[in-house]
Structure formats: structure tokens, C-alpha cells
Amino acid sequence: MIQLQTQHQASHPGKEPTVVKHDCHLSFLFSDDGLDTLFNSVADESIKAKTAYQQYSEIFNTERISRQALMELVKAKDKDCWIALHEIESNALLKPLFMSMAATLISSLPRMYGDVRFCTGSLFISRGKASTPYHLDYGSNLLLQLRGNKRFLAFSPNDPELVSKQSLREFFGGHPNPPSLKYDDSFDQKALALDLEPGQGIYMPSTTPHCTETRTRDLSVTVSLSFVSPLAERLRRSSLFDARFPSLHFIPSHLKCGVLAVYEGIKAARGDIPPRHKSFRPLLL
Predict the structure, then answer these.
(1) Exposed e or buried b for every residue in 174-206, given b needs 16+ CB within 10 A?
(2) Burial status of residue 51 (CB atoms within 10 A of its CB: 0-12, 13-18, 19 or more)
(3) pLDDT of residue 75
(4) Angle in degrees, 0-180, between the axes of helices 230-244 and 253-269, rounded to the nearest 10
């Protein structure tokens, strides 16, 4: 069971970050023994980590670690850690969960927000003093807390004070950490602030700024399905049009998207466009 709590967003479900309820944490897979089996089943190149704790305003990057290092960090209860298992949506043990997450999105949200065209799955593991700095993602996200606790701050992607057009142009122009996207403590009063526990989660549309923090010695495990929806493509094309033709910024978004769609279609037919979704793959139900 996975339920998006959209009752307070009747007019625009999917437009803003939304609380989620679920029972996926009850699976044996997320017990100690289940996690051992899972960690041994993922591809080596999926295992990444970073410095456990960073300020929300810092830029972060991950690097690959060995499976042995993963197992040692998970078992070392006195050590802080931040680990991510990326591109695991096809893992045999996790695929049923990701399929259930995708089905919930498709059935619960309007097509603009919930049509899962391409997706990628991740598992985030942290313990002690660990954080994810303030950032935004291209894909929309459905995250479910499976073990432990996680402090989560999600901000509206529709607030120009938080996500300016300049930030979007930089982001879709190739800057994963847009120079103009800055975190300030004063933003916290605008956040959807959640202390996620097992059975809880959050949905976030494309380009939702967010940051997280783990504060206890209990192992925190969060699963994420990140996906490309029509919303993300509309934002990307509109932002790229504005960057290329700033004097025509007043043109309606649907016309900007139409022009870029035709242009990209022609280039794709000529083989001139590299894959845009390097880590996103078509959803296979």
C-alpha cells in the first residue's frame, strides 16, 4: 500500500511536495538479514558515498566505494555514514517495489505530473550525523522511509524566490549545482518539514529544492524512484528556449516547448543529440 495524501491539493495534485503513507517497510528485505542479501545483489558500480555531514549550503558529489567498504560502514554503528545505491530499479529484489511505486504515481496524479516515462531507482543509507545539502533534481521523486528516521525539508518549486528562472536556465543548461541556487536559513519557514519514520514518505515534482539530515545512531534507509514526467520536459524545453532566445521570454511556454520539440526531433533523426537521460531508463511494467 502506497498512498499520496493529495486531499488538500484537489485543484492541482502533483504540483507541490506531498506527504505519502505506505506499508513497504514491513518487508523482510529491510531487516538486517534482508539488507545483507540486498547489498550483495547490487552491481558494484551502483555503490557510492560522500562525506557524511555537510552544511545545507555546500555542494556535494559522490564517489564509488567497494562493496566491502559498504558492508563495513553499515555494520560500524559508531561511524557516521552517507551511502547511495544508484540505478537499481532493475534489481530483482527491488523491482516489485519500484513497480508498485510507479503504479501509484500513474494512478494518483494527473498525467503532467505522474506519467512515468523514464525512471531510475535508488536506495539511500545513512547513520549518525549525516546530511544531503540543498539541491534540486531533474526527475520528480517518490521517496519512502523504510528504516530509521530522516529529517526532510522540501520547498515549493513554484516559488520564484527559491527557484528563479535563472536557476532553471543554469540547471537545464548543464549546471547540476546552479550558481544562482543558494540556500538561506530563512527559507526554512517556507518548507514542508517532515521527520520521516518507517511508513512515511514524500513525493516531490521536478526541480523541488530539498535537503535532508539524519540525527540518530539507528540506520536510516530510504528508497527513491526518480522519474521523468511531462512536467520535467516542459520545464527543460522552456528554460532552454529562454536561455537561447532571452528577448523572446514572453512567448507562452507551450509554444516554446513546441519549437524545441520540433528542433530536437530533427536533430535526433539526424543522430545529433546524445541521450539526455543518462541514468533514466524506460519503465518496464
Answers:
(1) eeeebeebebeeebeeebbebebebbbbbbbbb
(2) middle
(3) 92
(4) 90
CA-based nearest residue to 37, from 29, 25, 47, 26:
29
Interacting residues of 281 by C-beta distance below 8 A, sequence separation 6+: 89, 90, 118, 119, 120
DSSP state of 237: H
Separation CA 273–CA 252 (nearest Å)? 25
> Position 190: which residue type?
K
Alpha-carbon gap, residue 236 to 221, rounded angstroms: 31
Between the CA of residue 210 and those of 94, 166, 237, 251, what are the distances in Å? 25, 18, 23, 30
Region of 181 on the Ramachandran plot (φ > 0 left; ψ -120 to 50 alpha; else beta): beta
Q: Are 140 and 204 in contact (CB under 8 A)?
A: yes
Instruction: Check: CB of residue 16 under 8 Å from CB of residue 9.
Output: yes
Is residue 182 a contact partner of residue 176, using CB atoms and an 8 Å limit?
Answer: no
* pLDDT tens string 193-223: 999 999 999 999 999 999 999 989 999 999 9
Instruction: Tell me the pLDDT tens digit for each residue of 117-130.
Output: 789 999 999 999 99
Confidence band (pLDDT; 50, 70, 90) for 9? low
pLDDT in tens, 73-83: 999 999 999 99
Listed by start position, the domains of the chain span 2-231, 234-282
What is the CATH number that goes with domain 2-231?
A: 2.60.120.650
Q: Write down the pLDDT at residue 195.
A: 96
**Average of per-residue pLDDT values in the chain:** 88
